[in-house]
Amino acid sequence: MNNILHILRLIWRAQRASLIRGTALAVAVVAMGVALLGLSGWFITAAGAAGLAGIGIAFNVFQPSAAVRFLALGRTAARYGERLLTHDATLKSLTDIRVGLLRGVLDLPFRRLSQLRGAETMNRLVADVDALDGIALRLFIPAVSAAVVYLGSFLMLWWLTDLVLAAWIVMSFALGTGLVLIWTGRHALAPSRRSEKALQAFRIRLIDLLRARDDLVVYGRLPDQTGAVGAAEARLRENLDAVDRLERRAGLLLALTTTFSAGVALWLGGALVERGAIGPAQAALGFFAALALAETVQPLRRGLADLGRMLDAARRVRRLMPENGAAPVPAAPAAPAPDEAAAALEMTAISYRHPGAERPVIADFGLSVAPGESVALVGASGRGKSTVLALAAGLIAPDRGEIHIAGRPVSDLSESQLRAEMTYLPQRSMLLGQSFYDMLALARPGLDEREALEVLEAVALSSTVAGRGGLHAPLSENGAGLSGGEQRRLALARALLRKPRLVLLDEPTEGLDRPTAIRVLGGIREILPRATILTASHRKAERDWADRLIRMT
Ligand SMILES: Nc1ncnc2c1ncn2[C@@H]1O[C@H](COP(=O)(O)OP(=O)(O)OP(=O)(O)O)[C@@H](O)[C@H]1O
């Protein structure tokens, strides 16, 4: 429950004014509903009684009928305003939460980030935040408005009718519906949680199925995975049905509570009329007001049926959220000026052990690369070449030792300064976008087409792009449909477009034939004639191209 309150606090802090106005309108809607039915009941009975008594001609029908019309129209207008305000406030605050969550995910240390599974993270960002919309709309606002309306109804009924009648109507209602709602919340908790889990499993398995379709076919596991998706879907249906059944039962119990409460109110009203404590029209007012109070709890019924889902979502969201929600991004400190005379990259006495590994992958390692130099890290597989590049790129921090870029400690540079200074091409890259142009523009939004074509020429991709219908020809997700070598060169072209002073390339010509590799390496220098380049290399073409080799043993 703490987590729900925390999320509610975030929504409240971001949208306090709209929530207060929305809740006030929600109170107005229910109060007008109760007043409308109560007044109508009173009006019909009073008019009938006046007719029977033969004084119908003297009965003032205009004022009550005008009030009935005012309440009916006012209720509709208040409902409209309430929906507009509360939904708008909730959606806006959920956007803030989603942004805060995204920021929380992006600020995770690289180690944790690399452990996150894409499908699960997507679920967190989409499904969990969506589940939170009910906290304000179906729990907080209805609960507050029900409490206010109960209190207001009690006072009004006491004033207009009789204390005993008013107390019975409001107490029986509050107690009866309270018990039904607690029962609903308790019983729906487990199926609501299970349905959310099944929904997440369904999505994750479906994404895995679509992503790994080829491998699943090759290993003959497509039917198993399809079955697993179907099983998650069946579990989801089953639990959603259970929640729906509970909600319907809750509806039935609430209707019985209303009937009982209103029935006793009618009998009590009759008894009070007999005793002459109130008139028949006042008794009718009490009876109809009791019927109208049912409206107060309807939205809570759905909210409590969904409580399990909201509780779990709130817990997960809170775990990833920065404590204060979507806090503004702190301004980056001014960058220390680069020292042109210093080494472009200097690593001193570096040790690093991967999490969970027994021994450090590199110990007491050092290197120095001069500005404009190209250096290749060489050595057998697993010696730590990629690890050195990841350290230099600031993606992981060394356990010991220091890293300087153009004379400045990496830890003194902000994330944006670091990214402006250097580019890193890992062994596997994601190609985001729907065309060659989109994929390249990730590195430089608003990229000039001429420049895009120039860099594509440098990585020997011009003819491929022309053959596919040009820069804006549609491509499949992550460049599927391009060969492995073409995808690699596209990722390289994207990295070069950043025009950084320091470039870290992990096996840049992997998968290319030797003539193409030589052409691409020449192209890199053409595009970045003065950049400092550090590569992790196995290929002879890359070793021959580098100014110097550093052997890792
Ligand atoms: N995230 C990780 N967690 C645990 N161990 C890791 C991790 N990443 C790499 N390693 C281990 O660290 C060692 C060095 O890996 P690294 O990728 O740096 O070597 P490499 O020289 O680049 O190899 P290759 O030439 O095959 O790419 C390997 O034994 C690898 O299994």
From TrEMBL:
<dbReference type="GO" id="GO:0034040">
    <property type="term" value="F:ATPase-coupled lipid transmembrane transporter activity"/>
</dbReference>
<dbReference type="InterPro" id="IPR017871">
    <property type="entry name" value="ABC_transporter-like_CS"/>
</dbReference>
<dbReference type="GO" id="GO:0005886">
    <property type="term" value="C:plasma membrane"/>
</dbReference>
<keyword id="KW-0067">ATP-binding</keyword>
<dbReference type="InterPro" id="IPR011527">
    <property type="entry name" value="ABC1_TM_dom"/>
</dbReference>
<dbReference type="InterPro" id="IPR003439">
    <property type="entry name" value="ABC_transporter-like_ATP-bd"/>
</dbReference>
<feature type="transmembrane region" description="Helical">
    <location>
        <begin position="139"/>
        <end position="159"/>
    </location>
</feature>
<keyword id="KW-0812">Transmembrane</keyword>
<dbReference type="InterPro" id="IPR003593">
    <property type="entry name" value="AAA+_ATPase"/>
</dbReference>
<dbReference type="GO" id="GO:0016887">
    <property type="term" value="F:ATP hydrolysis activity"/>
</dbReference>
<feature type="transmembrane region" description="Helical">
    <location>
        <begin position="250"/>
        <end position="270"/>
    </location>
</feature>
<feature type="transmembrane region" description="Helical">
    <location>
        <begin position="18"/>
        <end position="36"/>
    </location>
</feature>
<protein>
    <submittedName>
        <fullName>ATP-binding cassette subfamily C protein CydC</fullName>
    </submittedName>
</protein>
<feature type="transmembrane region" description="Helical">
    <location>
        <begin position="165"/>
        <end position="184"/>
    </location>
</feature>
<dbReference type="InterPro" id="IPR039421">
    <property type="entry name" value="Type_1_exporter"/>
</dbReference>
<dbReference type="InterPro" id="IPR027417">
    <property type="entry name" value="P-loop_NTPase"/>
</dbReference>
<feature type="domain" description="ABC transmembrane type-1">
    <location>
        <begin position="22"/>
        <end position="309"/>
    </location>
</feature>
<dbReference type="InterPro" id="IPR036640">
    <property type="entry name" value="ABC1_TM_sf"/>
</dbReference>
<dbReference type="GO" id="GO:0140359">
    <property type="term" value="F:ABC-type transporter activity"/>
</dbReference>
<keyword id="KW-0472">Membrane</keyword>
<dbReference type="Pfam" id="PF00005">
    <property type="entry name" value="ABC_tran"/>
</dbReference>
<keyword id="KW-1133">Transmembrane helix</keyword>
<keyword id="KW-0547">Nucleotide-binding</keyword>
<feature type="transmembrane region" description="Helical">
    <location>
        <begin position="42"/>
        <end position="62"/>
    </location>
</feature>
<dbReference type="Pfam" id="PF00664">
    <property type="entry name" value="ABC_membrane"/>
</dbReference>
<dbReference type="GO" id="GO:0005524">
    <property type="term" value="F:ATP binding"/>
</dbReference>
<feature type="domain" description="ABC transporter">
    <location>
        <begin position="345"/>
        <end position="553"/>
    </location>
</feature>
